[in-house]
Amino acid sequence: YNDDAVHVNEIVTRFNDMSINLKQLMASITESIDGINTAVDESANGTTNVAENTSELVKDIGEIASAMDDIFEIFRRSNKYIDETAPWILAKEEASQDRLKTVLYNLVEAIRQGAVLLQPFMNATADKIFQQLNTDLTGYETLDRFGYYKEGTKLNEAEVLFQRIDVK
Question: What's this model's pTM, rounded to 2 decimal places?
Answer without folding.
Answer: 0.66
